[in-house]
């Protein structure tokens, strides 16, 4: 039971709820996930099982894609429809005004992390402070929104849909909140569906119901994806069988003897033998002129 299983997370499940279910279905305690989705959100949640959990902190920072709904004329403490209403305002704008503002929120932008988030301040999660009624100063972070498009509207209800492609760490509800502030009427997120994460899309996902059915048939393990698919953002190199054995046993390789090895110090490299078997991640050490072992994944 080693590999990656992508789940289409249902609404009202936390990411840890999904992990708990998958522990039972996969019959292993070694299960983790690659990136938290809020309970109200749905969509792509890659699950790591067995030895693949050792890749959690090594997965490259992939861009993500979302479909989000929002409503104008309201603000809440959580920046989404499930929070406590802070203010209601009249709405005098529509589709044209929203589309005119989207370029301002595309490209490199600064975001202030919301209080209801997992960001830490002095060792405490912001959402823990927010639940105590405490608001603290936060530093704005630079994120990148690659594409931002209006994909649906119900102007009479002040409700709209967005398609978003963005860098990791982007808060979609904050993006919507800031858009509402710029429009002068406020806005809250009403739905969120992640359609792509860690290089995986909804096409790669199973629902929990499908996972349960496959588990009952004893075929769920057949849907596990190899861990190196989650690491495909790193360059791959092929080594000789002798080098492969040495590397898998923890031995560093001379960079000069590894074909097409990158020259960037600190770069991660996926190491394969001539038959395409994956050994693990190597770390380029320019000073020592070695490809050192970062993590072994082959059994």
UniProtKB/TrEMBL annotation:
It catalyses: uridine(55) in tRNA = pseudouridine(55) in tRNA. Residues 173-231 form the tRNA pseudouridylate synthase B C-terminal domain. It is an enzyme of class 5 (isomerase). Residues 236-295 form the tRNA pseudouridine synthase II TruB subfamily 1 C-terminal domain. The keyword Isomerase applies. InterPro entries: PsdUridine_synth_cat_dom_sf (IPR020103), PsdUridine_synth_N (IPR002501), PUA_sf (IPR036974), tRNA_psdUridine_synth_TruB (IPR014780), tRNA_sdUridine_synth_fam1_C (IPR015240), TruB_C (IPR032819). Residues 23-172 form the Pseudouridine synthase II N-terminal domain. One of its GO terms (molecular function) is tRNA pseudouridine(55) synthase activity. Its EC number is 5.4.99.25. The active site is at residue 38. Coiled coil: none annotated. Keywords: Isomerase, tRNA processing. The keyword Isomerase applies. NCBIfam families: TruB. Belongs to the pseudouridine synthase TruB family. Type 1 subfamily. PANTHER family: PSEUDOURIDYLATE SYNTHASE TRUB1, TRNA-PSEUDOURIDINE SYNTHASE. Responsible for synthesis of pseudouridine from uracil-55 in the psi GC loop of transfer RNAs. HAMAP family: TruB_bact. This is tRNA pseudouridine synthase B. The lineage of its organism: Bacteria, Bacillati, Bacillota, Clostridia, Eubacteriales. The gene is truB.
């Amino acid at each position: 039971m080693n590999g990656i299983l992508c789940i289409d997370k249902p609404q009202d499940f936390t990411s840890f709820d999904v992990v708990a279910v998958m522990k039972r279905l996969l019959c292993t305690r070694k299960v983790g996930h690659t990136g938290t989705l809020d309970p109200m959100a749905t969509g792509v949640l890659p699950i790591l099982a067995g030895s693949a959990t050792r890749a959690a902190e090594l997965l490259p920072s992939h861009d993500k894609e979302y479909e989000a709904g929002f409503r104008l004329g309201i603000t809440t403490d959580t920046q989404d429809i499930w929070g406590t209403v802070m203010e209601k305002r009249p709405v005098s704008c529509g589709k044209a005004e929203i589309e005119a503002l989207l370029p301002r929120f595309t490209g490199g932008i600064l975001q202030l992390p919301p209080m209801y988030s997992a960001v830490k301040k002095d060792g405490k999660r912001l959402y823990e402070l927010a639940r105590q009624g405490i608001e603290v100063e936060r530093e704005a972070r630079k994120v990148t929104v690659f594409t931002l498009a209006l994909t649906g509207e119900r102007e009479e209800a002040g409700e709209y849909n967005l398609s978003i492609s963005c860098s990791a760490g982007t808060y979609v509800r904050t993006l919507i909140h800031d858009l509402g502030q710029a429009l002068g009427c406020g806005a809250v997120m009403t739905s969120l569906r992640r359609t792509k994460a860690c290089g995986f899309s909804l096409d790669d996902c199973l629902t929990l119901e499908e996972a349960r059915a496959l588990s009952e048939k004893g075929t769920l393990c057949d849907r596990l994806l190899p861990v190196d698919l989650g690491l495909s953002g790193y360059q791959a190199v092929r080594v000789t069988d002798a080098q492969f054995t040495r590397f898998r046993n923890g031995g560093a390789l001379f960079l000069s003897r590894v074909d097409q090895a990158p020259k960037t110090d600190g770069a991660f490299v996926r190491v394969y033998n001539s038959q395409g078997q994956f050994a693990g991640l190597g770390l380029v050490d320019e000073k020592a002129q070695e490809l050192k072992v970062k993590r072994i994944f082959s059994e």
